[in-house]
Design a protein that fits this description.
By secondary structure, the protein is mainly alpha-helical. It is built from 14 helices and six strands. The chain has helices at about 1-15, 20-30, 50-60, 65-75, 95-100, 120-130, 135-145, 165-180, 185-190, 195-205, 210-225, 235-240, 285-290, 315-325, and strands spanning about 40-45, 85-90, 110-115, 155-160, 300, 310. The N and C termini lie far apart (about 55 Å).
Length: about 325
């Protein structure tokens, strides 16, 4: 760290030392690239980007003269930990110090992350907690609930003035692009409908923890569908339960009584797929649903440590229950 700072100081004070105008050259590195009135451009800082990377990108964009000048300014003014992620309007007629200061002020946009396996209500709650003054949660739920499963989990940069419709269209359009368009060949090759793929993927997302497990669990679910067996998955019971006010959480462990629910999402009572997806699955879960691992497994359980155990027959499954859940 000290060596880096020393290097910055030497760079700015000496600059082109061979010409004898080092201090002046160092000073020049901090001045605007173009002092004239130039229209501001949008500069985006992703989450977690380093000061070094930001300085290099500012230089590449023609907004500052040298990345080391930006590093020096942020160090001198103690701004390194104050730079914000988001989008900013910046002009090359601003000095390096002015630009650094600008990047610590409120962004025009906000980064949000929609997590894999969230249901629509969880997405709405996350947005409601952010700085979106025009967002209407009830309007978003009305738009999004019929599209459960088709809102793509990702990290998005969104204007603070975004409305419920803006959010819904962004999430839905991203799904259309990354799944319906980019994976069209895989969907067709699977021999299954997009609706069935997304529904299975939404269950897989809640029932498996990594891509390898996802393929095996997807294969089991498709095996059960093919044989006319019930899916018997707890995730659908959790979907029925919804928000647990006592635990203040979604997706809480289901109770034995939940298996008696008459909801069409009760996969212990009704055969086949539930009426629609129960969550918004990741790309990995969708791919697992399209390309499941072939096996003779029909059962699986999660032990108390979260490890998953598979079985081909009911006696094997019961043995796993006795061994890992007792």
């Amino acid at each position: 760290m000290k060596k880096g700072i020393l290097f910055l100081v030497i760079f700015l004070l000496l600059g082109l030392a061979v010409s004898g105008v080092g201090v002046f050259a160092g000073y020049q590195q901090l001045q605007p690239v173009s002092p004239g009135k130039i229209e501001a451009v949008t500069f985006v800082i992703p989450k977690g980007q380093s000061v070094t990377a930001i300085g290099q990108r500012l230089t590449d964009a023609g907004l500052i003269r040298h990345p080391l000048a930006f590093r020096f300014v942020t160090w001198r003014s103690n701004l390194s930990n104050k730079l914000q992620a988001g989008s900013f309007k910046i002009s090359p007629n601003m000095s390096t110090a002015q630009i650094a200061d600008k990047l610590t002020q409120g962004s025009n946009d906000v980064w949000i992350t929609v997590l894999e396996g969230w249901r629509v209500e969880e997405i709405a709650e996350m947005i409601e907690r952010q700085e979106f003054s025009e967002f209407d949660q009830a309007e978003f739920l009305a738009l999004a609930k019929p599209e459960e499963g088709y809102l793509f989990p990702d990290t998005y940069l969104i204007q603070k003035s975004a409305t419920a419709k803006t959010f819904f269209q962004l999430f839905r359009n991203t799904f259309a692009e990354k799944v319906e368009e980019d994976l069209a060949a895989e969907i067709d090759a699977s021999g299954r409908s997009l609706e069935d793929i997304v529904t299975i993927a939404s269950i897989v997302e809640r029932e498996a923890s990594d891509p390898d497990q996802m393929r095996t669990v997807a294969g089991i679910l498709w095996n059960r569908i093919k044989l006319g067996m019930g899916l018997n998955v707890d995730a659908t019971l959790q979907y029925i339960r919804g928000y647990d006010t006592a635990q203040q959480a979604w997706w809480t462990p289901p109770l034995i009584a939940d298996k008696e629910s008459t909801s069409p999402f009760n996969t212990y009572k009704y055969m086949g797929l539930p009426p629609h997806p129960i969550a918004n699955p990741s790309l990995e879960a969708l791919k697992a649903s399209m390309n499941p691992r072939a096996s003779n497994y029909l059962y699986y359980i999660h032990d108390t440590k979260g490890q998953i155990h598979f079985a081909e027959t009911l006696p094997e499954h019961n043995a796993n229950v006795q061994q890992y859940l007792r």
